Amino acid sequence: MTLIDVIVSDITPETPTVKSITLVKADGSPLGPYLPGAHIDVEGPTAITRQYSLCSTPDAPDSFVFAVKKEANSRGGSAALHELSVGDTLRISTPRNLIAIAEEAQHHVLVAAGIGITPMLSMARYMDVHGISFELHYFARTESEAAFLPLLKDRCPDKLHQHLGVTREAQEHVLKDELAELPPHTHIYTCGPAGFMDKVFAVAREHVSPDAIHLENFHASEQPDASANAAFEVELDGETYRIPADKSIVEVLQDNGCDVDTSCQEGICGTCIMQVLEGSPEHRDNVLTRAEKESGEVMAVCVSRTRGQRLVLDYY
Ligand code: FES
């Protein structure tokens, strides 16, 4: 994956644990625009690469803004980004969308919890400016921990539904109330902790089809123990490679000189997705949509394997 150098031009504390970081190109040329909901890979000072949603105005080309929550058990990623100063250099990828505004929808319901507000923010900014029908439900423990809440209150108070201090046990009840009466052709989008998104999906599923539910998931799934894996074969460009139980497809392809881009290696960023021409993938990622997984036409080769003996793949 190609990364470009960018300069930190501004750092703003949004909450006691969240900072937003503004990036520009050193030569002043535009970075954007980007599609609402997009994320970038950010290689921080410790060379750890993580995915962060963009939360600036998608139409504004001059800079990108992303927000970082300092995790209590950070292994260097978020903690190092919190130590940045204006003028420091980072390396970022071009924006990619794992979640995007569905053009066919007539109304959009955004449901965010905690730092999951970031992709929802760029989508809300875009829909607000472009007169697209939406509502935003924002769950946070307290007002002071709700990043960008003052901005949302100022810019789209009539679209914003604050749910502060709702316990985990009560979240489902609130969601059921809020999603009970949706206009026709509504799509629902969510980002937050995995357990929260599971609740949103379950409640949303009572009202809309799975294709109308969009998850932004930056959490890796727990992978089965490698001892439970079986070996199989992968064909790519007419060459056949044996994938042993203890190696991923991407490891074997890269060991053999195949040019497969990767970033997270955890099934959450979407960089390594390849086409499946033959065979049946066993999906272990958190990046493909349910519909994409059911189609069997694409797979994330950093974590996923096959239910059969052989896959025929092609570059995406
Ligand atoms: S490298 Fe990120 S999903 Fe495979």
TrEMBL record:
Q: Which GO terms describe its molecular function?
A: 2 iron, 2 sulfur cluster binding; metal ion binding; oxidoreductase activity
Q: Which InterPro entries does UniProt cross-reference here?
A: 2Fe-2S_ferredoxin-like_sf (IPR036010), 2Fe-2S_ferredoxin-type (IPR001041), 2Fe2S_fd_BS (IPR006058), Beta-grasp_dom_sf (IPR012675), DmmA-like_N (IPR054582), FAD-bd_FR_type (IPR017927), FNR_nucleotide-bd (IPR039261), MRET (IPR050415)
Q: Does the keyword Methyltransferase apply?
A: no
Essential cofactor(s): FAD; FMN
Q: Provide this UniProt record's keywords sorted from A to Z.
A: 2Fe-2S, Flavoprotein, FMN, Iron, Iron-sulfur, Metal-binding, Oxidoreductase
Q: Which residues form the FAD-binding FR-type domain?
A: 1-102
Q: Which Pfam families match?
A: DmmA-like_N, Fer2
2Fe-2S ferredoxin-type domain location? 228-316
Q: What name appears for this protein in its UniProt entry?
A: Oxidoreductase
- Give the source species: Rhodococcus pyridinivorans
